[in-house]
Each structure stands twice: as C-alpha cells, then as structure tokens.
Amino acid sequence: MSNSSLPRRSVLGAAAGGVAAAALSSAALPSAAEAAGPDASDGAAGRWRLRWAPEPARDGLAAFETLEDDRADSHPEAAPHIFVEQNNFRWNMHLVDRDTSTDRQRQEVTGMRTPAGGPQLEWRLGESWRVTYAMYIPSTLRATTTFTHIMQTKMPGLGTGPITVTSLRRVEGRQTIEHKIFEPDLLVGRTDLEPLQDSWIDIDYRIRIGEGTDGGVRWIIRSDGRTVLDAGLDGVDTFLGDRVRPKWGIYRSLGDTSGSLRDCYLLIRRMRGYQLVQAPEATPTL
To answer: Signal peptide position in this chain (predicted)?
Structure first.
C-alpha cells in the first residue's frame, strides 16, 4: 500500500457518521456459467465473453502487462522470483526480499495481454470484468496482522492506492482470507484461511467499474466443488481514473507482529478473463 495513495471519492449513500454499502446476496447476483468456449451466457446479466486465456507453459510471463520481480534487486541470487513451473505461474518470496520501500516485500504481475506479448486488455469506466483462476496457498504463506495482499485492482501509475484487495489477514488471532474495497475500508467477504491451504481452490472475481454508487464487486471461493464463500457489494466506487488493472502475487508488510512471516510461494493456473457484453439498455449485473 502506498503512503501517497490518491484520495478516494466517498461512497454516496453512506450512513451518517460512517460508511456503508448494500451487501448483495447470491440470489441478487445471478451466477455466470462456467465457459467451455469463447462465450458464457448469464441470462438477464448478458454474456461473459472470453477475452484472456493464458496457458503458463505456452505463453509464459508474456501473458501479463508488466512484472514487478524484486524491483529493488534485493535478492538477485534467487532470481527470478516469478516464473512458470510446469503449467503454473509461481511467485517465490523469501524473508530477505525487499521492495523499493524497505518496510515491505513485493513480487507481483500486472494486467492481461492477449495474445501473449500483444496488446493489453484495458478495463474502462462503465465496463464489467470477470477473472477466474485456480490458486494454491501453501501453509507457509500465512495471514498477518498487517497487510498481505495476493490480488489487487489499481489504477496504473506511481503513487496510486488500490481499489480492491484480496488479503490474508489475522482477525482476533484467526487466519482469514478476505476481500475489501480498499477505501473506505469496506469488507466484501471473509472466511477462514487454514481449511483452504495446501490444496487448490477456485476463485471467481467480478467487478463493475463505476464512480460513486455505480460500481460493484462479487467474490466467490470454491473448494472441491463446494462454494465456500459468495459475497458481493453494490453501490460502491470502483474507479480512480484512467483505467483499472488487476495484479496477482505476494505483496506484504514486514510489520507483522504474529511471527507469521516465512519463506513462501504462491501458485496460480487456469487463469481466464471475461468481459460482460449486453444490450445497451440493460442494467449491468454481476
């Protein structure tokens, strides 16, 4: 998290003296069909059009817009920290790794290119996007008392704060995985982390890019075919300016007070990116 993050627009319609957003039940947000081909129909919500389908073994890191691999050159003998292993994208983090701000660590990739090495996909104001992927969080990648982000959305550029974050956070001593609207710190959903570690889980993340009360997010976790969490927020601000760009990897503070920092790694595979396509008069639904 940058100390020079841009000020966010306040969430319109917030309760007096605090912030609030309407939580969306799964019934209010129809599920999108898992896409076996280039399009997945979602009924009244429109059609999720497949825009990005990298295969690590085929496309390598050219699937992403940029790499943030040991930007401070703090641990060159362990390079690269981000690479392809079999058909997985892998991020390694060592206790000695440092980012350019030395109170934190960062190994991340940003954006989506299609085809690999080609033009970047740009998430623009008024659009709805969805990313799905399988993720393996080992028991060495632990929740912390400060921030440990494993997925973010941001506006590209230096000094910009996150828009949304998926984080591993200790809450009253429990290890949890959570998703938040970064400012003004709105919790979308949270569940226990430990039952999800050391196995592959499936993530389905959707964002409607809007200012003021026009934005929305939905975050779904599945494990062994079972839905662990399906949570959303509507009527929130999901836009800072220019465009929105996703990031994946490990970005964590060294200020943890629970003794949870370890050498660790993260694996992701089966990444897919979709854009919602619908009639102009339709209301975007996640």
So the answer is: 1-35
